[in-house]
Amino acid sequence: MSTNNRLRIAIQKSGRLSKDCQELLKQLGVKLNLREQRLIAHSTNMPIDVLRVRDDDIPGLVMDGVCDLGIVGENVLEETQAERQSLNQYSEVLKLSKLDFGYCRLALAWPQELGPQDKSWFEGKRIATTYPEILKGYLKREGINASAVMLTGSVEVAPRAGLADAICDLVSTGATLEANGLMQGDTILESNACLIQNPKLNDEDKLALINKLMPRLKGVKQAKESKYIMLHAPKAKLTEVCELLPGTGQPTLLSLAGSDDYVALHMVSSETLFWETMEELKALGANSILVMPIEKMME
Ligand SMILES: Nc1ncnc2c1ncn2[C@@H]1O[C@H](COP(=O)(O)OP(=O)(O)OP(=O)(O)O)[C@@H](O)[C@H]1O
Ligand SMILES: O=P(O)(O)OC[C@H]1O[C@H](OP(=O)(O)OP(=O)(O)O)[C@H](O)[C@@H]1O
Ligand SMILES: [Mg+2]
User: Fold this and answer.
1) pTM for this structure?
2) Could you confirm whether the keyword Secreted appears in this record (predicted)?
3) 58 Cβ below 6 A of ligand 1
4) Positions in the chain short of pLDDT 70
5) 113, 201, 225, 231: which one has the fewest Cβ atoms less than 10 Å from its Cβ?
């Protein structure tokens, strides 16, 4: 493959998604030569280049075909799509997968001292946000006549600074709202990071590489959600023990040296075992219960 035939993936250079994106690429088996400050990182083992940019630029780079793939928050993707649609510009992407990081919600908030408010309070108000198009869509749907004040950062200080009456900002733990004396209202959008592709991509080699990476991505996700469970269970209680174990796969049973009453049970569970379930297993006579992480999976 020549240099311009290398699959180009856009990720956030520095911010909330960067570490998770780099970790994901590593788990997919993409080795990168990442040096700080470099815009482009070349993979040393696959025909892949990683572009490290501001997250706001990622959807546009993929829509315009400058990059073939991108990892970005659904919030930024939706805002860019709405903005482009309002300008009659091309705004299509293929959403290949929702990822299990970057969870946050876009929510309304207002000064705590005003107490709980319903939607009618927003009538005629100014709402500061980095997501004016998503906000405008919500206001339109709800029939609220309020205006969006665009701010690219520090949205949470806008009411105190007299720039707006309320805000529409990303919330994860709620600590930022609390620290700024704001009360949370309606959630407008729930967001995760997602993997997007340029829908016009037609290079066969690149498409073949994406087809190779997608099952790996599925395997990484499944492995994260699964646990390998090992325990010793009394033969007489096997049915009850199995009923307590999450997941539908058949367990492996192995005989235990020197014991006729007990067997070793191994299984891949679709979720982790809670302490409560482990206590119930113990109460049934199970012992030596081990719950272990799985690194990779392939069906
Ligand atoms: N508190 C949070 N917890 C989890 N994910 C978040 C949180 N805040 C934002 N995100 C997600 O991470 C993305 C990037 O957030 P970040 O704050 O790093 O963006 P930024 O300041 O706009 O960075 P950039 O310099 O790349 O423009 C957001 O668009 C959102 O999808
Ligand atoms: O509910 P919380 O857990 O407090 O998270 C919410 C905050 O996280 C994000 O900002 P970030 O901390 O990434 O910094 P930024 O504003 O500089 O982008 C977001 O813009 C909120 O301000
Ligand atoms: Mg940004």
Assistant:
1) 0.90
2) no
3) no
4) 1-3, 36, 248
5) 113
Specify the DSSP class assigned to residue 37: T
- H or E element, residue 204: helix 204-225
Concatenated DSSP letters of 72-84: EEHHHHHHHHHHH
Q: Nearest CA to 28 among 193, 256, 221, 168?
A: 221
Length of the chain: 299
Tokens matching residue 155: 């949205």
124 and 95 share one domain: no
Secondary structure percentages of the chain, helix, strand, coil, to 5: 35, 30, 35
State the residue range of the domain holding 237.
226-293
| Residue 90 CA neighbour count, 13 Å, CB half | 12
For ligand 1, atom 14, the nearest C-alpha belongs to 16
Q: Looking at this predicted complex, what is its ipTM? A: 0.95
- Protein residues whose CB sits closer than 6 Å to any atom of ligand 2: 16, 153, 156, 169-176
For residues 66 and 200, membership in a common domain is answered with: yes
Looking from the CA of residue 16, the nearest atom of ligand 2 is: 13
The atom number, within ligand 1, closest to the CA of 76 reads: 29
How many A from CA of 148 to the centre of ligand 2? 19
Any domain includes 298: no
